[in-house]
Amino acid sequence: MYKLLSVSILLTVCCFADDFKQDMQDCNKNKNNIACHSVGAEYYEQKDFKNAMKYFMKACELKYVDSCLVVGNTYALGQKAQNIAKNVDKAIKYYEIGCDLNHVGCCSGLGLIYGDLENEKLERKYHKKACELNDGGSCYILSLSYFDNPAMKAKYFKKACELGYIEAKHCNK
Description:
Elements: H1 2-28, H2 33-45, H3 49-61, H4 65-77, H5 88-100, H6 104-116, H7 120-132, H8 136-145, H9 150-162, H10 168-171
Helix pairs in contact: 1-2, 2-3, 3-4, 4-5, 4-6, 5-6, 6-7, 7-8, 8-9
């Protein structure tokens, strides 16, 4: 039994190492965005955050939107445990790439950042796009921003309700 388990572990490590090596080559040589994301994820699992971010950024720049969200979130919040400082400009850069490719999380992230920066025009722009991509939270935030326009407030509040963001008991009022 012990020998069988050892052989199984060895085969798993061997094959996994080959997959990682192939992904690394596909990323660096062939500019394969999915491979770059996979390399970033493997480095992240190994707790090599510097290389993880390098490959997530590369995957994002190659239009793999999930990597854009990872990088945007990491820079928007900062990660002390990973020794990555908060950097709003970098967060915006990577969120914009993802949002331009219709990633709802990236658009919502931009809306939140611009809300923190008190830029109402850009906050609404990105929450509106996220709402159009069916993000109930962004619809709700957008409804709150229209305190001076009851019709717009009602429109976005209704959509937040329809998307299930707000409990039904609050939607029927």
